[in-house]
Batch of 4 targets.
Target 1
Amino acid sequence: EDSEQTSPYQVAWSVRETLGYERHESDDDNADDRSSRVTRLCTYFQQKYKHLCRLERAESRQKKCRHTLRKALLQAASREPERAGQLIQELRRATCARTSTSQARQRDAEPTTCSGTSKGEQCTNKALPYTRHCFQHILSNRSQQLFSSCTAKFADGQQCSVPVFDITHQTPLCEEHAKKMDNFLRGDSSRKVQHQQQRKPR
Ligand SMILES: [Zn+2]
Ligand SMILES: [Zn+2]
């Protein structure tokens, strides 16, 4: 029932429409009217069934085609790998050109250059997928929700501004600060263990 624009289905739909139309017109429904409606419904479902069969057959035909193409490409690749590679690239380009939507989708996914600047100079890093910023500049995008600034502060009180992808912690830390925190906690716990060990003998 999707984007198929072939005629049989449209015919079937128009049959249904005429059925609905007739139902309104004939309020005095007699036996003749009923039987004619039933026959029309029958033809409608028959057409629908035929159409679905046709779709199914087309699908299996496509599957077979794809299978034979894959087999042929495999054979070609084992015989002449370079030529086969060229052919695959050409095929891919052809299919891309044919479906404009997938082309647009590819364009979206294609990495573009970061639109951010560092010290007045244009960033040359590749942008993250579906964004216009690289990892260093992703925080310039205020609508994004995945990255946040490191929540740690340096010894001089300055806020760390390294972007972090961490959706599990409430106070995300960059790699450097996460390591420092880990070391701190480890030292803390080992200190506690030492204290306990020192206390135990007493
Ligand atoms: Zn950048
Ligand atoms: Zn940090």
Target 2
Amino acid sequence: MGGFVAARAYGQSAPAEKKPLRVALIGCGLQGVGVHIPALCQERLVAVVDPDTRRLDAALKRVREVSPATDTAAIRTFGDYRRLFDAMGRELDAVLIATPNHQHALPALLAIRLGLHVYVEKPLAHTIEETRQLVAEARRHGVVTQMGNQGQSSEGSRLLCEYVAAGALGQVHTVHCWTDRCNGFPDGYARPPARPVPQGLDWKAWLGPAPYRDYHDGLHPHDWHSWRDFGNGSIGNMGCHIINHAYWALKLGKPDAVELEAVNGGSGEYWPAGASIRWEFPARDGLAPLNLYWHD
Ligand SMILES: NC(=O)c1ccc[n+]([C@@H]2O[C@H](COP(=O)([O-])OP(=O)(O)OC[C@H]3O[C@@H](n4cnc5c(N)ncnc54)[C@H](O)[C@@H]3O)[C@@H](O)[C@H]2O)c1
């Protein structure tokens, strides 16, 4: 603020008006429509992308509700993010990606390579290799990025960091994190029978890079979290929100060891109905070694 006042006093021109960002929303599901559309209406939402026309309709309806002055006829709709980038890649400033986890890395990489700024929902990607690629490409292209673990900006998270830094808790030796969400199945769960693809859904575009399977119940919307081809189970869904606070406050880096202490169910194609995992972290920066436990 001091710099701004001084610049004006010397007769320099005022800072340019902030121009709204031209943004596209990729993935118009619960999070995209429920949470991101209202925020994006404060910028210039120029396109929405979803392989399900019912979700595209829901997105435009939501725009009309939260921003009646917006002309929704001017917002372009696409069933595939590759078509969005082909048609509008050079006209966009940023994209927001709120697709199922198996479709985070590809649109994010395409956007980054076009020099677009990218907000990707948590978890950043479906595999660790994808997260490494995304970090490397974002650095190479110098774009602004954010992952959607918004709890990091909460007062509770900042307070936790202050308590730990002020020594109010003393040395922390043990941390327990948990969720009551269940994104998995017990032993012996069978894939539901194939069903006709709902009208308006481009099933192949929804599957994207995942191996082909017939459409069945318990996938779209939202329930895909339990299936390894698309989601990352309870820990992938909630761990990045919950463990993040301890990770930040206690400066946890790489663990020395990770142990699966208990598991309920799970298979090669779906995540377990419950698990307990222990990470062993070494001493770091004046902080004692600690065990972090995850229970779901
Ligand atoms: N930050 C948070 O608090 C928070 C909360 C909920 C969900 N999320 C994250 O947001 C993402 C979406 O979750 P959701 O609950 O909205 O799921 P959802 O299933 O309701 O929505 C996903 C949408 O993406 C669409 N989609 C699928 N393939 C696509 C493609 N190729 N291009 C464009 N759209 C495609 C689907 O048709 C669906 O409408 C997930 O990664 C989830 O982890 C974050």
Target 3
Amino acid sequence: MCPSHPELELQLFCAPCGQVVCRECCLLAHRGHACDTAVRAADVYAHSMRDALERARPVAEDAVVNLDRLRHLEQRIELQCSQVRDEVDQFIDSYISALEEHRRSLQMQVQEARESKLRMVHGQQLELERHLEDTRNAVSFAENLLSESSDIELLSLVVPVLHRLERCCTAVGSGGGGANNLLEPRVSECLQFLRSETAGKLKDYSLFGIITTQTISHQYCTLNIESLMDVCQHQKAETMVVTRDADGRPLRHGGEKVVAEVWYKDTSHR
Ligand SMILES: [Zn+2]
Ligand SMILES: [Zn+2]
């Protein structure tokens, strides 16, 4: 029954308003609107609803399929992330272990250099201590001989005593200097860590930082001057400097800063 006209049945359908109405409503409130009988309108609308339903049903099925695909994608993403996370962990762990190995190797080199240097220092200390004792004995013997002996006693011992005193002086290279000078330290304290030098590869990881006992000694460095013979102003020229340490051995590492000044041959201008 119509809410506005309880005595009348709802038999009509106003299409523009989308409402079921009674005869009175059709003539009054819906005057001029295209009203049809409910039976006919229902028939027409049932058709379009079936069409719409046919179109909507596959959408729902597609949505189900796509939801499933999304769930699979989610699982694959999780799996992929977890695999990559594991790869990162493995890489970093392995890198860390290569670095730790590098650290052990460097510390070992420092230890070896320390032992070798200290061994040489202790050796030289011992040698020098023996020499000190020898010299003290020779000196005091000679002093006694000079102050307390008769001429005959002095003369009978003078040759070996002089030899002995002479040997004391030559051992420390007095006058001549040289590599066997007992008084000069034969080992340098030079030991450096060069952090930017490449240290090769370990398990495919590039490592940096080397230990060196070499220190550059400019008087042993050589410049290839042949390539500079024909050099002209404002022209690029290349040459090679060989860096060496105090023992004349070529440096095994790079990274030394080499500064050279070039003068004109015939004038004092630079
Ligand atoms: Zn009505
Ligand atoms: Zn209407």
Target 4
Amino acid sequence: MQAPTTTMTDGRDLPLIGLGTYPMDDAEAAEAVRCALDIGYRLVDTAASYGNEAGVGQGIAMSDVPRDEVVVTTKLRGEHQGYEATLRAFGESRQRLGVEYVDLYLIHWPLPRLDLYVDSWKAMIKLRDDGLVNSLGVSNFMPEQITRLVDETGVGPVVNQIELHPHFVQEDMRAFDAEHGIVTEGWQPLARKTDLLSQPEITEIAERHSVTPGQVVLRWHVQSGVVPIPKSGNPQRQRENLDVFGFVLSEAEMARVADRAQVRGGGEPDTHEEF
Ligand SMILES: NC(=O)c1ccc[n+]([C@@H]2O[C@H](COP(=O)([O-])OP(=O)(O)OC[C@H]3O[C@@H](n4cnc5c(N)ncnc54)[C@H](OP(=O)(O)O)[C@@H]3O)[C@@H](O)[C@H]2O)c1
């Protein structure tokens, strides 16, 4: 079982579902990643700030899946923004992961107060030009910040990973990303801090399709053109979360899934201080 892929503007393929790994520790991440890859996942999401890059790397090494079939994503943490600091931090991430190259490297948060994300981006372009990173992306970026990256470097991100779930559908940001050929990845896709999965609208649709509430929500992401990265350390739920390509939600069901109060659950991109 594998997710289909989409082709990013840099010509690389990205699976339509990935595995999140926050807040796993190294041991949990190693086992979860090994298991997920053997089930069929080919996209894995970690970050320097999760403290589990070594575990993620061990999981990749332990699985039977060849390294070049896995899209390994990691992220630059706030305290390492800036040109030289980004180069150093990337080297440390690469070492912890135990990989020759990283497939997708993201700036974790823009931290506009520091005003270093353009310098960080320039370092990331060098890493790509040096063959150490395949694809460059951002996370939690707003339109004006992406526009600035393009204006000042001529290079735009191929991915923007943002908070996205039926309680926070981010229509404007998704439209901006789509207009600029940027793939939107959705973090916290199952809205883990809410009771979304037990809401009657979701459970009714799940019963109708003989699937689980989690599958309904992940199918909603895929049909919305979003790449979700659900976290699970449980093999059964990992399998379930990848198995959403055998049914289709009607237009009315799509609308019903997202017909709820819109509330951001995590940090505000313009002010969130992630170090
Ligand atoms: N870029 C950013 O700023 C940012 C911020 C937050 C997160 N992320 C990334 O996004 C990933 C996903 O977000 P998240 O982990 O916060 O939330 P999430 O994926 O929405 O939810 C994960 C939670 O749901 C449970 N779960 C998983 N599949 C399920 C299913 N089918 N049915 C019921 N429960 C299920 C998991 O428990 P079990 O493990 O027990 O299955 C876990 O407690 C993170 O792991 C991380 O990689 C990025």
